[in-house]
Every structure is written in C-alpha cells, then in structure tokens.
Amino acid sequence: MNAFRLDGQVAVVTGAGKGIGRGIAFCLAEAGADVVVSARTSSDIDEVADAVRRTGRRSAAVAADVTDGEQLDALVDAAGELGGLNIWVSNAGGLPDATPRYLTRTPEDRWDAQVDLNLKAVWMGAVRAAAAMESGSIVNISSRAAMGPQLKNGPYGASKAAVNSLTQTLAVELAPRIRVNAVAPGPIPTENFLQSTNFPDDQPLEKIIGLPLGRLGTPEDIGNAVVFMASPAASWITGQCLYVSGGP
C-alpha cells in the first residue's frame, strides 16, 4: 500500500476549517503529508492545525480569503516554509449567502459572488500552485451538482461544471509535470449543506435523497478520494473527475 502514502509531501487545503476541508486535511496527514490549512476563520484552522500536529505531521494555519490573489500567495509561502509545495487542494466553495437561487432570479452581484468563490478562486489557486511546484498534484473539489440540471441551484451547478472543464484543460497544459484532477462530492451533511437546503427536519435525508448506497457521505469519504488522486497510486490519472456521491 506504499503507493497511497504521501510521506515527505507538503499539501495546501483551502476551506479547511470545517466539514469536507477538515476531513481532507486529516486524511492527507494520516497518509503522511504535512498540511497547510486555510480558511477565513482563524479559530477554526488553528484547531485543525493542532489536530494535524497531534498525528505527528507538521501543519501551518493561514487565514485567507481565496478570492484574493495576494492571500493565496501566503499559502504558497507557508508551504515553502514546510519544505515546498507538492499538493494543492482547492476545496473552499459553496453558496456565499447560503441561499440557493434560480438562474433567472439571481441578482448579478450574487452570480459574481458564486463564480468568484467556486470558479475564479480555483483558477487562481491552480495558477499559483503550478508556478510553485516542480512536480505534484492539484485536486479541485467539484460537486455532484456539476452533473445535470440544478433547479434552484443554477449558479452553483454552473460554476462546478466549469471547474470540471477547467480541470481538464489544466491537466493538458501542465502535463506531464503536474497532474490535475477533481473530486465531486455528493450530499454530505456539513454545516454549509444543511444551511443551503430546505429538507424537512422530520425525515432522514438519505431517504429523501434516495441514494443507492443508502447513506449520506462523510468528509472522510472525500478525504480518502483526495489522498488517492494526490498519491502515486494515481500516477497515470489526470484530467478526471471522480464522483464520490453514493450512486449515479
């Protein structure tokens, strides 16, 4: 199983203060990587960094807004202080105001906010990671919402579908030096997910959603997929999106 190990690697994970990003950071650390964790809330990432260090790995916590290029530069610098960047995970994303919207009823400023967070920030992160890496792996966190129509969630679905296209193009541009892939989570009951959905409280979510595998996902489900995509085990995989969603 050495092909799945990340010993000696340094990873950056954005949106790592809670939920899926937190799970990704822990899984990378358990696989042997040192991890730079980033989010806008310092207290969240300080706790995650401390927990990573308790696994025996090194960690740095850097508060940053991923829509600000200069703040992304600070993440590259932090990785350099740990030995150099090898893995970049663009996980930060979601609905900035936790409000799903129809495409035709979305104010322009809310459209811009979603595209900036879910697409532009991914592109800016990839540009900086590619400039800092001699070789390595970029993993973009997409979404099951990238597939098919997304009634009441159009801007988010469109931005995540664009992330998949971005991933494919970057994979060609950066090969063979850097592999670029995406991981697309299905429904995972994170704080952001629960805030942005209106499912009834009196029914199990897995029953409402009707997942073939019969359960909701966990942050560790996504973290394990990211470890695979970043590891030597995936050395002949680039430009792909792995859907981790409990079913088709």
Describe this structure in words.
This protein is an alpha/beta fold and 248 residues long. The chain is 43% helix and 15% strand. It has helices spanning 19-30, 42-54, 69-81, 108-132, 154-174, 191-195, 205-209, 219-230; strands at residues 10-13, 34-39, 59-63, 87-90, 136-141, 178-185, 241-244. It has a seven-stranded parallel β-sheet with strand order 3-2-1-4-5-6-7, with helices on both faces. Helix 2 (42-54) links the parallel strand 2 (34-39) and strand 3. Helix 3 (69-81) runs parallel beside helix 4. It is globular, with a radius of gyration of 17 Å.
Largest sheet: 7 strands, parallel
Strand order, largest beta sheet: 3-2-1-4-5-6-7
* Overall number of strands: 7
Number of helices: 8
Q: Structural class of the secondary structure composition?
A: alpha/beta
Query: Outline, from the CA principal axes?
Result: globular
What radius of gyration results from the CA coordinates? 17 Å
Strand content bin? 5-15%
H/E element string? EHEHEHEHEHEHHHE
Summarize the amount of helix as a percent range. 40-55%
Report the average pLDDT across residues: 93
Write the SSE topology.
Elements: E1 10-13, H1 19-30, E2 34-39, H2 42-54, E3 59-63, H3 69-81, E4 87-90, H4 108-132, E5 136-141, H5 154-174, E6 178-185, H6 191-195, H7 205-209, H8 219-230, E7 241-244
Parallel strand pairs: 1-2, 1-4, 2-3, 4-5, 5-6, 6-7
Helix pairs in contact: 1-8, 3-4, 4-5
